[in-house]
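Rather than argue in generalities, we reproduce a single protein record, letters for residues, whole numbers for local backbone shapes, just as it appears below:
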Amino acid sequence: MTIRNLDALFRPRSIALIGASNRAGSVGQVLARNLLESGFAGPVMPVNPHDGAVRSALAYPDIFHLPQDPDLAVIATPADTVPGLVAQLGARGCRAAIVISAGFEGREQAGLRQAALDAARPHLLRIVGPNCLGVLSPATGVNASFAHLTPRAGGLALVSQSGAIAAAALDWAHGRGLGFSRIVTVGDALDVDVGDLLDYLARDPETRAILLYVESVTDARKFLSAGRAAARAKPVIVIKAGRSSAGAKAAFSHTGALAGADAVYDAAFRRAGMLRVFELREVFEAAETLGAGLQVSGDRLAILTNGGGAGVLAVDALDARGGRLAELSPDTLAALEAIAPPNWSRRNPVDILGDAPADLYGKALSVLARATEVDAVLVMNCPVAVTDSTDAARAVVGAAPREVRRKPVLTCWLGDTAVAQGRRLLANAGLPSAEAPDEAVRTFIHLVDHHRNQTMLLQTPAAQADIPDAGGARRIVEQALSEHRAALTDPEARAVLTAYGVPVVQSQAAADPDSAAAAAEALGRPVALKILSRDISHKSDVGGVALGLSDSQSVRAEAEAMLARVRVARPEAQIQGLVVEPMVVRPHGRELLVGIAQDPTFGPVVLFGQGGTAAEVVADRVLGLAPLDDVLAREMIGRTRVAKLLEAYRDRPAVDLQAICDVLIALSRLATDLPEIAELDINPLLADEAGVLALDARIGLAAPGAVRARPAILPYPDHLASSVVIDGGSLPVRPVRPQDAPRLVDLIEKSSAEDVHLRFGGGLLHLPPILAARLSQIDYDRQMAFVAVEPDGAIVGVARLDSDPEGETAEFALMVRSDRQRQGLGRALMGVLLGYAASRGLHEVWGDVARDNSRMLDLCARMGFRRAAAAGDPARVKMVISVKVAPGHAPSESSPTA
């Protein structure tokens, strides 16, 4: 369950308080005060077996004696009483309970936690907590918490895994006049978790922005799916505790050592379209800015100031945070020249000097806001004696309503008393107003990061190549596991990479020094010599690597010395021999590090960064959740410092960036196909203008019986491809791919206006690319879409299913291209959709169909759908069919529908 009965938390009809008290300073006393004095319109029923009244409200000795069934209950009694109370409340029809009580922590209390869940399940009663601060819904007068204040109503929703952080946030926001729609502290999250609340708040009309305080995620797939849906609907800003990498442990590979847990969370937040910030104050700054609807289209900032020093500080902050100073065009400079004083800066920052008259602010702002090379404008003012900062603010307010429609206008009035009135004018006009340059720039970067993350949600990636020999790679891994090995040998690792299309240096294994010398003669000189041992991962650490050997004699001598060194350094290691490989001479090559690891929460992750022997020291890397595509791979690369070295500079041409992307995509496929691989790294991956080449690779295997996290993001479900028989032949049917977006646009273009109206309603004539991207980029978990494809790749029919968060019902949508109708394609696609629904274990499939869509209504009737009234729309009919789980098709963890 996710959103089932969560409305009872925020809009209850009645509330019972179990553990209400008159004892001063007790939790029960604070809860009673908050519930009875926060404006809730329904009855609040205290339960206390000892007192006849609590705060002048009649108290009841137990749940049985309550005069009516409570919609919501708040429990603040000892932990061992909670399961019994939950059972009693469920029997009374209570739909949700907030368990304030602590005492459920630790392994020894697992039975108590399960007992509470077992008591709630038969009644579908939802539990928030235990060990939580509570729930607040200011718009409905609900303060079911022991918070020290009741916040004002507003558009921000706060979900926190820490009651203390929530209380501090409430206090901070109260002093600044910020209001909330919902506040929930999940505590130990026995039932309701952050993913559930994201699902609810995404659909909540009173919430315009969602704030998260996260310490850990338990159900990564639900969290990402819900977060992605929420982030598409409204801004989601997250702050996560535990950023330090001090807890990261050394691992088999560079990837394992560098892939700290916080970096994985960072990748997950980006993938879901959320904006991550790092300070509590930033959470509210970002919420105010994004919640106001401000949006940027790029990272180029123009700065307008009357003080050169303030402009320099802003530029420094912008550079430190990865933004760009807009390079003003000749036309923009000419327009400013016509209005600015003779000694103005003639560049960005636009310094109009300390004695600039107030009206010049408005004129210069209009010029900059119209400049196509500018994505946002930061207006700064330093108080001086010859001009009035308040008048300057009025000029900005006068110009901004016209210009803010073009791009965001941010402000920074430096100082205190002299600028206070001007700052209030700006804030009252809805213009973000900072007190210092770095704060203003931080606001701009929030907009940039949010835009980048949102854009990534809507990108249409290129098609992916097939894996050359995935079966061969699996056989190698399974053989090593059957031998109870913890790692693959060097030749095996190269074979696995080759099977997935990763270019590797060809090498030869040698049993002894003489064989190594012969191999060097065959390969050509110079060569590299490496120890071959299943027990040694980091060969250079034990003297197991020698480079640049120029003749067979030196190869033989070094091989003998190497074997002796390694036997001394690692006497317990079994040595299988040596590996000889040609030295690679690529003068323009850049050394990179790529790899994969299995995160215990989010499943397979891919790493990219700067390689070489100092990879751990430099720590220039970024992580991405598998699976990846071309767009996501390029975005990963762009987040590193080494990305700048991949471009052309001096005498070095730019590297083949697509070749690097292909390797990252192949590794992401490898990580999802073979979860038995615990860690893999290629260091270095040599990249230049001619492509890439893996010089060294290590692959570590999972320990027998190790628990592996399921992928947080499902890979493309190839196994669901099939074909359908229609009049005149058959057509292949497969799940939609992200790269199908242009084909969906073409489907609409080639359909009649009537058919498009029946499918989408309104005045839609063409499918906008942004909507096509959303329809083609699905999570393959809650959403599924099957497309019927002609031999030339054109899509001629689409059947879509959107499941509710509980996974019990799903809404269908169906469209067949106008010229392919009346051939049985619609019926065939509906059959595929219902078969898939049965395999998912869905109970019901439904769709709202226009009353004048006679063909769809007839199709549904022939397939066994029944009619029901569509809620609130007499022009539509709800068609419903019950689904029986197909025998042998129950979802399993090996299935992408799990």
